Model the fold of this input.
Amino acid sequence: MFMEELGNLAEALPGRALAVGDLFQRVASGSLERVGIGAEGTYLGAGSGADGIGWLLPGGPLAVDSRTLGSLTSQAFSSGAVTMVNANNGPIITFTMPPSGQVLVRASAMASVAGEVDWRFHTAPPANGEIATSFGLMHVSDVVAQQGRFEHTALLVQGDSGVPLPGASLSIRWWVRVKTGGNCTIFYGDDGSDTAYGPVVLEAWAVA
Amino acid sequence: MAWTAPRTWTDGEVPTASQLNTHIRDNMDALARAVLTTTGDMVRATGANALARFAKPTARTALLRVASGLPAWQDGNGLLALLRYAPATEEIKSTNSTSFVDLDATNLVVTFVVPASGAVLVRLTSHVSLSGAVDGRWNLRESSSDVAGTDEEVLDGGNNCRVTTLHRVSGLTPGNSHTYKWGHAVVGVGTVSEKMGGVIVSDDGGAAYMEVWAG
Done:
């Protein structure tokens, strides 16, 4: 009888603790098992697994670059070219690919577009290549320019051209393609007036 | 079972059943293993020498935080569902219906579990164009019904561009599963069309997105 009781004690804490920060949970077998302590910056959550809880890196913002100037300015993109957005030397974002291998990238700005225009993301420096899955058609066909605040979203997935594996660093810049006959201009700046354009913004969000 | 400070035994002492039950049985029943019932359970203190079951959260996005001085699960305000639809050959979804119809009930669908807040943010992104004197409209649909409060004008009277909309849907029951589809319609006589997929070197639309965030 006492041996059974002593056996129960062997299952009890702190006999199962192996490291500072250890946490414990019940597992499917009914046993009490170590969850341990997670990597720096991780959170405790249910995760996607069927069993128990674990340490996770949640979704959330990875990098944001917002560029503006104290005066109103613009960048016009040449017809027939693919050109990098250069608003006060940016925006450019650099982040580490999350464990999921998936990142949502968004670009937004006040813009005028006409003809055939698309926005897309390249790795930086640009010579490293285009992310082929990242394009989005802003406008097509009409010769009358449409002006407003435009937004482009792209999901980058590891294995897509130019998108590395989790843990690797990735830098992104924003490019504009204007097919012959079209035009695109991006406006930015804040001079304190009620007609200020606001910033150009590039964001990266981890998908959990 | 309440914890009792373990007795200090003396030489030659013959323990009674009551002492054994109090100091061994009852204390064993107060240990962590005894209060756990379900896979994923942890324990947390509810007072000095008192442990209670701390069940794992139901939501995939829940994270541990401190609330009222105790560890508690809270929605991580994360992405609940994400769909990128980018067929290799561009597809154009069109309607001239003045009541909402599904863009694509097979491919433009997201399913999510309602977070504890009972609210979600749904973001839709696509290239959209009009022909005729019409306004183009989007909404969210579930089964054959329109989701209340999500009817929105996306393009007014001609032209075309890439559009992003954000709908907040509240009053949902936490833990329930919902499947939303993307609806479109026109006001007037004409057509609204969404271009999606294709290849980068053409004038194809690029990916369409449906995102659902805890709201």
The CA atoms of residues 97 and 185 of chain B lie 5 Å apart.
